[in-house]
Queue: 4 jobs
Job 1
Amino acid sequence: MSSKPVATADEAAYRPAVGIMLLNSANLVFVARRLDMVSEAWQMPQGGIDKGEAPRDAALRELKEEIGTDKATIIAESRGWLRYDLPAELAAEAWGGRYRGQRQKWFALRFTGNDADIDLATEHPEFSDWKWVRAETLPEFIIPFKRQLYLDVLAEFAPLLRRRPGSGEQSVPG
């Protein structure tokens, strides 16, 4: 099943959020291990959109809040919104049980800093560890209920992943 753009009637059942595919100079993808999961759960940075906040602003804010850096430039934005459903046992607990899952606008960002600029010891830590991985191995690290979403994000951003960083790459205007 593909994670499809959200139909308007379904919209209220999904928490509005952003996802961030952070790419380093070697086109490796940033993933981090969640602190709040019993199993080993890795993911790309993501988070909710505050009321009145533009998705691109939310992406940059979430990057800083989750991994302690703002050293990145937006290079692409997903065409539409993608979503995932939480397993029933998590949906009952997450976000006060108000949502079935998240609908996300995804952004590809080019990391412009050094690894030392990444600091998981943020005000409200979400991750215990991080690493750079090859894009094609990303689905191996992701918890099953988000796997299809990640495959869809990889497919949409595939042209960026094939391109040599800096070869005609331009940031997306705001």
Job 2
Amino acid sequence: MSDPKTRRTFLKRTAAVVAALQATTLTLAKDSKARGKYICITCGIQFKESDGPPNNCPICEDERQYVGWDGQQWTTLDDMKGKFSNKIKQEEENLHSIFTQPKIGIGQRAFLVRTGKGNILWDCVPQLDDDTIKAVKALGGLAAVAVSHPHYYTTMVEWSQVFGKVPVYIHAADREWVMRPDPVIEFWKGGSKELIGGLTLVNTGGHFEGFQVLHWPGGAKGKGVLLSGDQPQVCRDRRWVSFMYSYLNLIPLPARAIRRITASLKPLEYERLYGAFPGLTVTKDAKGAVERSAARYVKAIAV
């Protein structure tokens, strides 16, 4: 039989943890009539300022996402202070990942790409605090922001404004999904857009019509890096990637969409591919992995 004192200590600690989690949840959901720029807890997107939270989150109500099992819940950056922090990790020379802990929203990582012409924030995370601002400034600040697709828009406008109202590049095909309109957002059209430092945005379609990836030719010691967000999505067997219309709800893409994606990526040279989530990186022969995976996918859905 266990020591009663040890058991009491364990129960007290467990109760304290549960209470702390409940307090955090209550704090995040509090004061629903206050004016603020509300953030959806499930997908992490920030909305324009309003008196009380929005009635709904169109991104979560779309069939590619979902409304949280406990219903629509909201928070703000002010409510997040002291409860969330960002871990910044160097992935390779001139590339750092930024990851919010504990998880809020989808749980993706953002990337800071450093170039001789300025730094690009690729994709975004909900949290933005003083420690993060100080760390990013120490790395050279930001010259621009670019986000792959609506699930990762999060607080992109907030990031832009903090770092001097730098441009935020979004493909025009996804304009309708921007929940916090702002003059810093620059919608572009077409198949590709050149950025500073030799970086290029490429529109692939697929997961979203305006889905874009970021090609960094100087990455991987000059062999090239593809920053792909959700598409291609790195599999748990990191020799492979996959492609889906909805990852969460398991809705596949048709073969024509896969062919469009692979055709848009074919001109690019890249040895390494960084996916949206920590650890999901194809470290070598990434272009080969994408092409092999696309062929496997199309074969699997063929009828």
Job 3
Amino acid sequence: MESTVLQPHTRTLQHIPRWAIIRTLRQQSVAEHSYYVAIYAAKLADELCLSKNDKLWCMTEALTHDFEEMVTGDIPSPYRSSFIRNDKEILSAPHAMHLSITRSEPELGDVCKNIIEVADVFEACMFLADEFYMGNSTVKDLLSDLMSILEAKAVKLGSEIKNTLIDHVNDDRRTRVLSARGLS
């Protein structure tokens, strides 16, 4: 494992706060976000009956989709790319990690890309839904906007998957459990 991807500096994602420009009740790190995106991507890959290799590719892409935030912090995507344009290590890290884990390119690259986009937005919606149901009304408009984006992106994976994701975000039962345990 010669790849610099697996060196300890990648652990810095656990110290980079997400939602830096939005008031939240609970702090979330970029590493936590990436973990959940990987879990959701794996589930979506299973739902779409992807091969083991493509599922692994989706999971590693999910884990590395915000690698550049090691350098930039959590800022909107259009600004991030201008900061890291010349950082070859950060730009090549996700691909090197994919190859070290899967040992091959994805068979269904476009499908994997769609899965990651959906899983990324879904995770953001889940976090904001938890925030909203725990009493943070300041996230309501952002959650509504992201739900529209989720619907538009998830339809590429099928209407049944889209409906399941939307229903899951709107289900506040998991948040009531969190609130009962003192996180509200």
Job 4
Amino acid sequence: MPNKPSMQDVYTKPGHLFRRMQQIAVAIFMEECAAFDLTPVQYAALVAIRDDPGIDASRLSALVAFDRSTLGSVLERLEAKEMIVRRPTPDDKRVKVLHMTTKGQRLLAKAMPAVDRAQERMMAPLAPSERKTMMTLLAKLVHLNNGVSRAPLRIDRGKSRRRLTGNASEQTHA
């Protein structure tokens, strides 16, 4: 009969540690960006909309690796805060394209130092060489497991100016 797992076993599992680090990362981001009333997903959406004005929600969902239905509520909040506008396309009124407002552009510019501080705080406990190793391995794990995600990252190089950096850029396709 197999041994029953203990909580110590749970604490040492990769899934538990990834979940805990995600909780910690979001908490740090929210602390640093509290003055901007900005979540990590809202930040990613704003950056993508800024970089690709006129993007539709389905494409945005693929770029930020967030499921389409949940992203809809994120976009509603950004629109309510007047950070973005949604406009119908001339060809198909059912399809809405996204544009950042001047208010959204200002918020994103002001928030960047706080976002950078959050990223630094997340990695601060590690030595510089460990940070590089951590990021390399984390990027590899995310890339190699992308296909099993409920919201895989999809970058269509023909329609987007964005490029990933590092090894994953050569391997992530739409």
